[in-house]
Design brief:
mainly alpha
């Protein structure tokens, strides 16, 4: 795995607001050094056999590819346990690009749009379920 962070700091970081630069650098450095024995670790030693073990510390950052994945999996498990034990569907509706400015200016219409989209999708699934059971 190649580290392109130094190149990024020179070419892209100057475009970022000054107050965010230090945070970005610290976050990326923490992720790059995650589990690196040169930075943080703890030594364990058995009091009976004196065998040693070194435990590397993780960065625990959501940005880190290792720690963030672990966080995401734990979060997904937690959400799955919190969900109702019923069948459900998840649908994402996006506003066509040509209409986005209109709804941006008239945000009060978003609730009406959402209700109408819900009606159309519900009607579709209701007909599909009734049709698949042989009922009309």
């Amino acid at each position: 795995m190649k580290n392109h962070f130094e190149k990024f700091k020179i070419s892209k970081l100057p475009r970022v607001k000054k107050e965010m630069r230090e945070h970005i650098v610290n976050t990326v450095q923490k992720a790059l050094n995650c589990g690196n024995i040169e930075y943080e670790y703890i030594k364990h030693k058995c009091l009976e056999c004196y065998e040693g073990y070194i435990h590397r510390f993780s960065c625990k950052s959501k940005f880190c590819s290792k720690c963030g994945r672990k966080y995401s999996l734990e979060w997904a498990d937690k959400q799955a346990n919190n969900m109702l034990k019923i069948k459900h569907r998840h649908v994402v509706f996006t506003i066509p690009e040509e209409l986005r400015n209109y709804f941006y200016k008239k945000r009060e219409l978003l609730k009406d749009l959402q209700d109408e989209v819900y009606g159309v999708v519900s009607n579709y699934y209701e007909k599909k379920v009734k049709g698949s059971c042989g009922r009309n």
